[in-house]
Structure formats: structure tokens, C-alpha cells
Amino acid sequence: MSAPAELEIAPTIGAPVARKEDKKLLQGQAQWVDNMEHPGMVFLGVVRSPYAHARIKNVNVDPALAHAGVVAAWSGADIADEWHASLPCAWIPTEDTNAPEHKPIAVDKARYVGDAVAVIAATSRGTAEDAVELVEVDYEELPCVVDAVAALSEDAPLVHDEFGTNRCYTWTLEAGEVDRLFAEAAVTVKERYRQNRLIPNAIEPRAVFVIPVPANGEFTLWSTTQVPHIARVTLSGVTGVPETKLRVIAPDVGGGFGSKLNVYAEEALALAIARRLGRAVKWTETRSEGYVSTIHGRDQIQEIELAATAEGKITAVRTRLTVGMGAYLQLVTPGIPLLGAWLYGGCYDVAGYSFECTGVFTNTVPTDAYRGAGRPEATYAIERAVDALAREIGKDPVEVRRLNFIREFPAPIASGLTIDSGDYDASLDLALEKVGYDDLRGEQRSRRAAGDSKRLGIGLSTYVEMCGLAPSAILGAIRYSAGGWEAATIRCLPAGTAQVLSGATPHGQGHETAWSQIVADRLGYEFDEVEVLHGDTAVIPLGMDTYGSRSLAVGGVALYHAADRIIEKARKIAAHILEVDETAVDYSRGVFHGPGASVTLKEVAFAAWTAHNLPEGLEPGLEATFVYDPPNFSWPSGAHVAIVEIDTETGAVELLRYIAVDDVGTVINPTIVEGQIHGGIAQGVAQALYEDAIYDDDGNLLTSNMLTYLVPSATEFPRWELYRTETPSPTNPLGVKGVGETGAIAAPAAVMNAVVDALSDDGITEITMPATPERIWRALEEVRP
Amino acid sequence: MRSVSFTVNGVAHELELEPRELLVYVLRERLGLTGTVVGCDTSSCGACTVLLDGESVKACTILGVQADGAAITTIEGLAENGSLHPLQELFHEHHALQCGYCTSGMVLAAVSLLAENPSPTSDEIRHALEGNICRCTGYQNIVDAIEAAAR
Ligand code: FES
Ligand code: FES
Fold first, then answer.
1. How far is CA A782 from the centre of its chain?
2. Nearest CB neighbour to A707, from listed B36, B44, B103
3. How many other CB atoms are there within 10 angstroms of residue A180's CB atom?
4. Which of A224, A245, A249 is nearest to A236 (CA)?
5. How far apart (Å, rounded) are the C-alpha atoms in residues A360 and A363?
6. Could you tell me which of A268, A347, A278, A350 has the C-alpha nearest to residue A309?
7. Inter-chain CB proximity A27 and B37 less than 8 Å
8. Between 20 and 30 A from A364 (CA), which of A492, A616, A621, A743?
9. Do the domains B86-150 and B2-76 match in fold?
10. What is the least distance, in Å, from the CA of A691 to any CA of chain B?
11. Which chain B residues contact residue A35 at CB under 8 A?
């Protein structure tokens, strides 16, 4: 055989390749769920409770049924026999967790504004909307509770009577002699922070579309989901449709940020109603409906204490969280704060660690994963507390951080996990250099000296987080009920292209591009010769889907190993073709070199397909699957710096600059990495300065639509200044760590440390997020002489 | 029902519309032009932006019947003779889209901006995009793509 000595292909791992996903998205050719149509399809409309807590005394759907175009209408009781199980909660953190029944439509009581109480099927979207208004529900309003701390008081109304308490669970983690370290500490600080409730606002609203084949009892369900594989197994459980009869497809999905890492009532409803009616069913939320039916994020009260030496060496961290679960447990509701449970020591070397988290039911929309999920909260608490410690002992926050950084890796940390790699000094030094730290401190001093009404604030956030979720055995140990592996298949097709089946399911991240880069790099295909399939349980049977920055760190590594398997098999065939011993064949990027001649991997793929002349006993075809279970989490880290200016006359905050130095391990595509960091920082800054889902005491969501809940536009943000350091993860052969959430994790602390830094000379040490002009102005009023 | 005629991407349409039908649903559901999408119900997000006689409008804020006589351009009509509009190319080069759900609206808002102001500053670009929400990109690459087109 003849072959070029080396294939000429551009370097692909690490190259800023423009995305292959873009072309169709830019021309309006994406396949969104709401685009789907089918003859005879019906549209669902969901009747939702206007009360935060009410007994459902009677539901009269007759007026809706009398409306032209309405096909069917059911109350929760009418449809109850469709359910074989509650909507799933996959993470019950303790044996004694109170886990309520959760039907897709409430039967006896509505427990939050937005809780579904009846459903309409109609021949058009408009008719379904009209008919929703016609359903008569007789409610007996009950007292409600919306605040997690208040919900724990003795006389609080009970969200679920059967538990006799609103406490859902308490989970603890204790390591080292925490009490002794606190007793012996020269300095202690104690802080209390609030994590505002956030509405994820993926720009594509949720939608679901189901086509049944009634004679076979088969269903294909398209959903705006991050987790088609998890949706299939759990929806099968909820409805009793066997997994073999249910195909779930996530077509193009317009953002998720955790809000589509869930299995929702409307997905179960659409499936059950398609079964009842034998017709195709579609449901699409309106944005305002989504605000009261799609999960919210955060909602924590955090109490954190640090014990330290007089110099500022931290010896122990003690944290107590009170977390609003909302009215029910969605897919991972109780586990979200626990994803931060190991991180309240930050990137600091601490000996004593104590963490306690109590989940609490309230009459609100359930909370669940929102970008960062548990880790922004942890980073916020420790980073704010370190600044508080620096103020307490009169040192610069940079100095206190340097005094405490972990410097030896792999680093076992007090909370019990092991950080893979990092260089926290390198990131901080680079950030300080790029921001011009000393000059800024100088300017801050001169502004203060001059009594400038515009205060300058400099805020640091040196974070470490864990992603690449997750080693399955650890997940099992913390009672998460699925594995943390990911699967990838590579098929080398006969005519010189390769197909990748990815269990990870993108919704904007650019997997098709990054996966193509990895395969091109390892197997010598051109970037465009690689086709990546995802998000369809019939095509990709094995998958754990996309959340927690896991896709590259787990799914990408699975792909790397699948490529190894391809090479391993192809080498045998190549040796056979070249008539030499396997050990005499060298492989480099798509070419097998024998002593005299070479053969390309593509030629081997063709030979494997014809199977005319394969080594004795070798199966035809060149395809390999690898299911990768990571041995450890991966640990991105970095240093972010926010510079704010606060007008003390109006309370307005302006974010002047934002510098991010991130170490996300090896980078496959720097352009995609930067995009992820941009978006994450934007969401983190939004948490700090703008966004807040506010309930009144009666459980009405006051920020009930995009007019009243501020999702920032381009004018609210400065240019992001991004830099990178790189310590490859030693736990996987690609050296990757994950990047999807770093910005959202680091940014709230950086911004709020800057806000407090700006006001600390005025005697202000805490502003609650979001730092609105009103909050700042009021805080200033209180301290004004 | 009212009869309405307009062109979309150069193609003439005559339709019988219910007075309450929003233009965005006329485009999506009657004409199958699903590149124009819906992101909100309060005219806040701009995902539904199209060009009406060359000016950007939110297709969820106007009724189909109000478009009578107009020339409408949607994202499907922006590429010409098989080649992408320069802004589409620049969005691709600058990684100005992630999930792509806001993208149709962003690109058309940018087309309209550049028609009015061929060389906006980055601040002017940010202000012009105030009615278009992107949850993925943090806006910077979108601003860069438009700035590159302006040069
Ligand atoms: S859908 Fe038109 S502005 Fe949001
Ligand atoms: S790219 Fe996803 S909303 Fe803009």
C-alpha cells in the first residue's frame, strides 16, 4: 500500500476553530421543539394556581369543554390514573429526607403560584390559551410561607402536612477538630449572606412535542431538555411507558443553564395525553408561564465562620446553610447546595471543616440547578468571608489569600476530596498585573483622601470549583441515584468519514465542533469529515447528558478513549495489510507506518468494511465505544477581579472593568472556552447586581415576567478581559477540566467584594445581592453622619 | 378574517388572517418560517426581530394584519444567492452565537442598526441592542462581530 508519510491536517486540538453548529443557526434552520408539527396534533394549555397555598375543592372543566376547538380537559383527579410514580427526584440526600409525592397535576392542594391544577387539549395554541381561562377552580386559600428561614419556625404554615415540619433534610459534613480550632483562634469572623433567588431565563422557552404510534404503544418525545437519556428512564417511570417504547429527542435546544436539567410535569403530561388521545401533542410555555413553572436557582441563607491566626492564616471554616427547596423536589433540588458542600474552604489550606445544610419547603417554585449549582454559593461565601477576615486584621485581601493558598498538588482537602492540579499564585499574579492592582489601590486612596463622592472598589475572587461530574462511586456514596459516566462511540465509515455518537447533549456549548477537533486530531480525519450525533436516545443509547460542566471532562475523555480503541483495532488490520508484526507498526495521526510502507486509517476502515482480508478471528467493521467513569472530579480555578465605581449620591454601581484569569486545564478550542467564560461572567454579574426573583408574603411572584425581572442587556456589561493559565488535569489523558460554569461561580464574589470594598471606608461591610442602587443608597443613609 | 398581502423575503403572500394573529405566528405557523422565534410574551427579548420595510421590529408586537402591504425580511431571507450576509459570516467568525436562539433577532437588529448608522461605536452598538436579550454570550462577541461589519 502507498500512503503519504504524514497526512496534512491543521492542528485541531487547541485551535480556535469556528463552530460547525453555526451555519444553520445563522440561517434560521435550527430544529427547535416548537417548530414541530404533525397531522391531528393538539396543543396543551395548563391551568395554574393563582394561590401559593390552597385546597382544591372542585375543578369544573365543563365550560372549557364546551368551547369550540377544545378536545379534552382534565383535572388532576381526572388524570391521576396515568401516573405510575411521582415526578422524579434523583437525589434524596439522607435516609430521613422528607420527599413529598409530586403528581404532574395537583389533586388535593396547590402549593405554589403556578402549580398545575388542570390541563386542556385543543386544536390550536390560541384555543388552548382561551380555554385555560374557562376552567372553574374552587379554591380554599390557605396560609403560606415563602421564606426558608421563616418556614422553619414553629408556627409556620406547613407546605406538606404529612411531614409535620417544613424541614426537608439536614446534611452534615465534619472534618478535623473544628471546635478546638475555633476555641484557639486568635481571630474569628462570622458572616451571613443571602443567595438571591434567580430565574434561569434560557432564551428558548421550554417545549415538548410527542408523536404516538398507538397500535404499538410507542412514543417519540421531543423536548427542550439537557437530559434526554435521564428523561427517558424517568418519564418511563412516571407514566409506565416502557423504556423500549419511548424515544426521547433533544433537537436544537436554546440554552439551559440547568433549567433544562430536569424532568417536568408538562413532559409527563404531554406523554400521557398523547397516550390517552392517540394524537400528537405539543406544549410550549410562554415566558411568564415559565417564570412560575420552570425551576428557579439559588435561594440560600449562608452563615459562615472562619477561625484564623492573628496573621490571617485560616485554620477552620464552619458553614450553615438554610436553603429554599420550593414546594416540591424536582430532579436534583435537594442536592444542589450539596454540590458546593466540599468547597467552602475555597482554594485555601484549612485544617478544620464543618458544613451543615438544611433544605426547607416553601410555597414557591421549586429550586434546582442554575449555572454553577452549589459552587457559586460556596465560592461566594468563602471569598466574601476572606475579605471580611482581611478587613478584620487590617491586611490587603491579596496578602491574606496568598498566605492561605494550597500549593501542593494533588491536594487532599479537609472536606475529604482531592484537588487534581492548580497554580493559584500564577492566576492571581497574572490578574493583579493585568488589572494594575497597585495603581488602582493608589487611585482608591487618593479618591478617598479627596472625599470623592464616587468611590472606587476592587474585588477579588480566587476560586476553585469541581466539575466533570462525576465518579459514579462518589455519587452513589452521596445518594445520587444515577451514575456519573459518559459514553462515546466512533464509527469509521467505509468512504472516509467518521461518525461520533455522543452521550453528552449540547444546548449551545459547541460539542459538534470540539468533538470533531478531538477525533480529527487523534484519527487524522479532516474536521469536516467528522459528524457528531447527539440528543436522541434511539441513535445514542448510552448517555448521561450535559450538566455540571461535565461534557468535555467526561464525554470528551470517553471520546479520547474510544479513539484509542479504534487505533488498537486498526493497528491489527494495518499490520496484516502491511504484512508485518503489530509491534513493528507505528501510529501517528491517521497513518500506520510499517518498516517499508504505510497505510492510512481510512484505508484500514475500508478494509475493515469489505472484510475481504482481515486477521484471523477479527470482527469486520471499525467502530468503538468507550464508557468513561472519571476517577476524580476535575478542578478548574482562577482569579477574577472586578472594579466598580459607586456614586454615593445615587447608590448606582458601575462595573468599570472585569478581569478573569481562568485555569480550565488543557483547552480544546480557546474560542469556545472564552465564549463560555463570557456568558458565565455575565450571569454571575447579573446575580450580583441585577437579578432577584421576589415573592410577596402571599406567595405572589412579583418579578413575574421579563419586564419586572431584569435580564441584563448589552448595555449593562463592560468588555470582559480574559486571560488563562493552564495546569492540565492529571486525572484524564486530555488534561481537560471543564469551563461551563467558572464565570458564574467566580463573578458574584468578585463584584460584591468590589462593592463592599468601595463602601468599607464608610463603615459598610455588607450589601445584600443584588446590589441595587436603592440598597446601596439606603445603606449609605444609615451610616451618613 | 381579513385578507392581507405582503411580501416575505421577496415572495408575495395573500393570506386570510384572524385579526388577533401576531405576525410572529403568521411567519412561523402559516408560512413555516421558523427561523423567527418567540422568547417572551412581554416584547422584551427581541428573539422575534424581523425587518419590516427595512426597519427592525419585534414580530410579537405587531399583528399580521398590520403588516398589510409591507415588505418583510426574516433571517431565512438574508443570505443572497447562496452566500451568507456579511453579518452572518462575522457572527460565525467572532463566535457571536452559542445556542443560537437569539441569533436571528440579533443579526436582523444589527442589519437595521448598520443601515441607519454604518459605523457605530461599540457603545452605540450596545445601546442599539438593548431590546435583544442573549443569555449565552455575555454580548461581547456579538458587539465585536457588528463592529467588524461596521469597519
Ligand atoms: S418574542 Fe418578541 S420580544 Fe420576545
Ligand atoms: S446565543 Fe443563546 S441566547 Fe444568544
1. 38
2. B44
3. 14
4. A245
5. 10
6. A350
7. no
8. A743
9. no
10. 13
11. 28, 34
Cβ atoms of residues A463 and A346 within 8 Å? yes
Nearest to A651 by CA among A752, A754, A755, A765: A755
Distance from the first to the final alpha carbon of chain A = 89
In this structure, which topology does domain B2-76 adopt according to CATH? Ubiquitin-like (UB roll) (3.10.20)
The domain ranges of chain B are 2-76, 86-150
Instruction: Report the DSSP beta bridge partners of residue A487.
Output: A627
Which structural domains are found in chain A, ordered by start? 22-30+485-628 (3.30.365.10), 33-142+208-291 (3.90.1170.50), 152-199+296-363+380-404 (3.30.365.10), 421-469+635-785 (3.30.365.10)
CA angle A403, A689, A640 (to 5 degrees): 30
Q: pLDDT averaged over consecutive 10-residue blocks of chain A (785 residues)?
A: 50 91 98 98 98 98 98 98 98 98 98 98 97 98 98 98 98 97 98 98 98 98 98 98 98 98 98 98 98 98 98 98 98 98 98 98 98 98 98 98 98 96 98 98 96 97 94 94 96 98 96 97 96 98 93 96 98 98 96 97 98 97 98 97 97 98 97 98 98 98 97 98 97 95 98 98 96 98 91
The cell numbers describing A733, all together, are 489523558
Query: At A576, which amino acid appears?
Result: H
Taking contacts as CB-CB distances below 8 angstroms, the residues of chain A near B131 are 713
Number of other residues whose CB lies within 10 A of the CB of residue A37: 12
d(CA A574, CA A597): 10
Round to whole Å and give the CA distance between B151 and B132: 22
> Is B141 an 8 Å CB contact of chain A?
yes
A722 → chain B, closest CA residue? B140
* C-alpha torsion B34→B36→B39→B41, nearest 10: -100
Write out pLDDT tens, residues A284-337.
999 999 999 999 999 999 999 999 999 999 999 999 999 999 999 999 999 999
Q: How many CB atoms within 10 Å of residue B1?
A: 10
Residue type for position A785:
P
CATH level 3 topology of B86-150: DNA polymerase; domain 1 (1.10.150)
A461 grid coordinates: 475572587
Helix, strand, coil share of chain B (percent; to 5): 35, 20, 45
Q: Is B20 exposed, middle or buried (0-12, 13-18, 19+ CB in 10 A)?
A: exposed
Strands (E), A415-477: 418-419, 454-464
Per the CB < 8 Å rule, is B84 touching A286?
no
Sort out which chain A residues have CB atoms less than 8 A from B73's CB and list them: none
Sheet harboring A109-110: ordered strands across? A109-110, A54-60, A136-141
Please give the helix or strand (H or E) that residue A614 lies within, else none.
none
* Residue A713 parent element (H or E): none
* Closest ligand, as measured to the CA of A508: 2
Query: Around Cβ A411, how many Cβ atoms within 10 Å?
Result: 17
- Those residues whose C-beta lies under 8 Å from the C-beta of residue A39, and which sit 6 or more positions away, are A280
Does the CB atom of residue B39 touch ligand 1 within 6 A? Answer: yes
Query: How many other C-beta atoms can be found within 10 angstroms of the C-beta atom of residue A31?
Result: 13
Check whether the bond before A748 is cis (ω within 30° of 0).
Answer: no
Contact (CB<8Å) B28/A255: no
Place of cell 484564623: A308
User: Which residues 6+ apart lie within 8 Å of A492 measured at CB?
Assistant: A498, A523, A566, A570, A601, A602, A604, A605, A608, A622, A623
- Among chain A residues, CA nearest to B88: A26
Please report, for residues A70, A71, A76, the alpha-carbon distance to residue A65 in angstroms, rounded to integers and kept in the order given.
6, 7, 16
Residue where the block lists cell 409506565? A240
Q: Tell how far the Cα of A289 is from the centroid of ligand 1, in angstroms.
A: 14
Q: Which three cell numbers stand for residue A55?
A: 385546597
Grid coordinates given for A455: 468611590
pTM above 0.95, yes or no: yes
Cell output for A154? 414553629
